Amino acid sequence: MMSAPLAGFEERRLAELKEYVAARARRRPRPRLLLAAAAAVTMMTAGGVAVMTAGGGDPAYAVTMGSDGVVDVVVRDFRDTGGLTEQLHELGVPAIVDYVPYGMMCREPRAQVVEQVPPGLYHAPTTIPGEREGWQMRIDTKRFEPGQTFVWTMTVNPRGASSTSTILMRDPVAPCELVPDDRRVELDPGKPATGKGGPLEGVRVEGRTVAELDRELWKHGLPVMVNVIRPDPDAPEGFVVYAYEQSAYEADYVVWAADVVRHGDEQVIRLLVTEKRYPENPVRR
Predict the structure, then answer these.
(1) Higher model confidence: residue 232 or residue 5?
(2) Helix H or strand E encompassing 142
(3) What's phi and psi for 131, nearest 5 deg?
(4) 169, 33: one domain
(5) For residue 280, is it within any domain?
């Protein structure tokens, strides 16, 4: 069985993988980092476009604003979060964008969380179509209320996969004290996705990899979230899900269960996966 969660923890968005922010991301990047990029360029035009490139490849980030006040953001390189924060401020987005080391979090509470996010303020970050890394999202600057700050956190796990979280907070947002992230997530029971009438009815998921199930998962049109389970250090027969690695998975991770659960107004397929293969299914039902 899964261990009990920390009190009050809940996922507010499908992409909200962690609720921590690093204070060091408030600082501007040192000039030597930009020089080391060899071709780092920042451009602003009257049309509200900001692009920062590094090394001649795809832009590290790109920020554009339309005449309707909606800002589109694409991020591929998480090193210049300070520069991205500045560009968002210049376009009217009260935001803090931070890079946080894997497995770390801010000591809580850092600020009061806005429970009722203004409708249409922003859409949770999504991956960039056709690209393995990077995130994109849209923010409507007209919908911010006074005293609100949009906090966007990014991290990269040891295998190079990135994850991101977004949360709206009330000012003031306190500086961050980094501490190990040992929060545990409670899993809703859900309904088996492979059962009669389920979106994966008749599909065998147990023991297959995420990559092997990819086509079956996405053709049903439901969003997919992945929870990595690990042995519980306090209960050898049980498993836990740590908040910081809810979606920090790779294509070769092994799937043991698929359930349909609700997140807000959406239904999603939730996979329970492990980094290595076990002789028996570790998920107790």
Answers:
(1) 232
(2) none
(3) -125, 145
(4) yes
(5) no
Nearest C-alpha neighbor of 163 from the set 40, 275, 14? 14
Partners of residue 125 on adjacent β-strands: none
Phi, psi of 36 (to 5 degrees): -65, -20
Largest CA distance in the chain: 61
Cis bond upstream, residue 172 (ω within 30): yes
Domain of 48 in residue numbering reads as 23-180
58-62, 72-76, 136-140: least confident range: 58-62
DSSP-derived pairing of the beta strands 191-192 and 224-228: unpaired
Tens of pLDDT, residues 139-181: 999 999 999 999 988 888 777 777 788 899 999 998 778 889 8
Closest by CA position to 2, among listed 254, 267, 231, 224: 231
Output helix, strand, coil percentages for the chain, rounded to the nearest 5: 10, 35, 55
9 is a domain residue:
no
Q: Are 212 and 205 in contact (CB under 8 A)?
A: no
Q: Is there a single domain that holds both residue 162 and residue 195?
A: no
The Cβ of residue 210 has, within 10 Å, a number of other Cβ atoms equal to 19
Please give the helix or strand (H or E) that residue 13 lies within, else none. Answer: none
Query: H or E element: which one contains 218?
Result: helix 210-218
- pLDDT digits 0-9 by tens, 180-210: 988 888 888 889 999 999 999 999 999 999 9
**What token pair was written down for 126?**
């999504």
Let me know: does 112 contact 167? Beta carbons within 8 Å. Answer: no
Using CA atoms, how far apart are residues 186 and 242, in angstroms rounded to an integer? 9
The strand pair at 235-240 and 95-99 is best described as unpaired
| Total domains present in the chain | 2
